[in-house]
Each structure stands twice: as structure tokens, then as C-alpha cells.
Amino acid sequence: MLRSGACWDRRRRSFELSVREGADIVSIESIGGKPIYDCRLMNAAAAKGQAAALSPAATWRIAQAIVGERGSYRRTVAAGRAAVEILTEGMEGGKLKLSGKERQWLERTGSELGELPGDEAELLREFGEGEECRFDAANYGLEALVGC
Q: Percent of the chain scored above 90 by pLDDT?
């Protein structure tokens, strides 16, 4: 890892400047450590049977789910559902070992994807219901669709 020398000093100064200037998000990517961290994390997870990489078959299933739908929203939901199904099958088949917390998140993600409306306009209407809007629709150019 880069921890000394001129290159590290430049990265560290960049990181410190970002923090000092009030950056909303400063991540490990800002200081150049992410590729090394990701590789170590994946290797450690793979050694424990906890790593999931997209196999050609999984990629094909997700691609089929995407092209089987119309519109960006429905395609995104279909891809998410297919991914959850693949991970669940891997877990149930003993190929993927998940901790209790990871299993909860996988189940929650599947449940949330299952509850999404089939229509993007309906989802946007739901976000605009109530006294306050649940997100800043203007930031996404959606104020006309959401109504807040």
C-alpha cells in the first residue's frame, strides 16, 4: 500500500484538503487504497466461501431478466430480483455461505424488490405522498412527476 513517499504525501494532502473544504463524501478511493482493499476483501471472502462473483450463467440470467422488460425502471427491478434469486440459490445450495446479518439483508432486499410497484409512475407517486416529500425531487429533475 502507498504509505510513504511523495505519491502518498500528495494523496494524503488531497484527502485532507477535501475534508477541510467540507466534502460531503470522502472515501478510501480518494486516497488510492480501494483497489488493494477490494482485492484483499474479495480474497478473504473467497477463502471463507462468502464471495459471490458473476459467473457467465449468472450474467446471462440477469441479462435475460433485463431484456425481458421494457423501460429502465422495470429492467432495474428485474435485474435486482434475478440477482437476489441467484444469491439465494447459491446460499441454499451450499455454494455461498452468508452470515446471519448478510442473510437478513438478502431477504430484506428480495422482499423490498417484491413489493415495488410494477410502474415507475406509481413509485414516484408513493414517494410524493404525505406531508413532506421523501427526497428532493428537484435534485433529480422529477418534481413534475412527484409533485413536491
A: 39
